[in-house]
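pinned: reference chain
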Amino acid sequence: MPKQPLLGLTLPELQAVVKRLGMPGFAAKQIASWLYDKKVTSIDEMTNLSLKHRECLKESYEIGTLPPIEAMRSTDGTVKYLYQAGEGHFVEAVFIPDEERATLCVSSQVGCKMNCKFCMTGKQGFTAHLTANQILNQIQSLPERDRLTNIVMMGMGEPLDNLDEVLKTLEILTASYGYAWSPKRITLSTVGLRKGLQRFIEESDCHLAISLHSPLPLQRRELMPAERAFSIKEIVDLLHRYDFSKQRRLSFEYILFKGINDSLPYAKELLKLLRGLDCRINLIRFHAIPQVDLEGTDMDTMIRFRDYLTSHGLFTTIRASRGEDIFAACGMLSTAKQEANNKN
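pinned: its C-alpha cells
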C-alpha cells in the first residue's frame, strides 16, 4: 500500500495522525515545524521525535516531496519547471526573478475546464485536480525556494474549481504552524466562479485578481465561456459587498487584443463597470498561441489605454511580459507530456 504524504497536511490533520499512531499530542506541532519551517526531506531528520515514533510514522507516511523533472530557462532569467503530479500527470510552475522580488507562478489543476480562447492550458482540457501536497510541492521542491518573496496562483488550472485543496494550501502557507507567510505575499487569480469566489473572499485574506478581458458580457462570453455561468456584472456586484480598501488588494487582469478590446470605448466601459470598487487594472500583452486567431496590441496602444484609465482615477499598470521564449508567459502554460498521456 502506498505511503501517504505528510506535506500538505494541516495541523488538525497532523493531530489526527499522531493520535491514530499513539504518539503524544505535541508531536503534531513538532512534525509541522519539521515540514514547513525546517523543510526536511525525510522522517529520519525529525530528531526530536523518538526513534520508535519515527519508525511508526515511516510505516504509513513519507514527506511527499518530488523535485522537478525538467527545467527550461528563458533569456530573461525566468525558469519554467515541470513537476510530476501523480501517475501520468504533469504540471508546470514558473519562477520569475525581478531585482528584489522573486515570484513563483503555481498551478492548481492538471489542465483546466474553463477553455478560455486565449489560453493554452484550456486547449489542453481538464485531467485532474491537484492535492494540497502537489500544489505545495511546487514551492517546497523549487530549487530557488529560499529566494521567494511572492506566490501567485496563476498557473495551470482554475483555483476556485479546486477550492478545498487551494484553501488548504493557503492555510498552510499563512498559518503560524506552517510557512507563516503574510497573505499580502500571495495572489489568487480566477475567472470568477460564484460559490468559490464568495468562499475565497470570506475564508482567505490573500490578494484577489479577476480575469476580465472585456467589459462587454457578449464579447467576454466569446473569450471566456465561464461568463455564461457567472457574468462579470454579477462578479462585480458580489465584490461590492466586501471592503478592499485596506491591506487586501483587488485587481483585474485585462489582456489587450488588437482591434477587439483595445480602443477607448472599451476603456470607458471599464470605468463604468468598475465604478466604486477599490481596485486596479493590470494590462497584459497577448502572447500568441497555436491555432488561435487573436493578435496582441502594440505598446503605444497599451500606453494610451493605460493613461486614459489612470487619468480617470482607475490605477492601471502594464504587466511586464516574462518567459515568452520558453512558453512560460501568461496564458502559455501547457505540457507536451500531459497532452501525450491524454491521447494514449
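why pinned: The chain has twelve helices and 14 strands. The radius of gyration is 21 Å.
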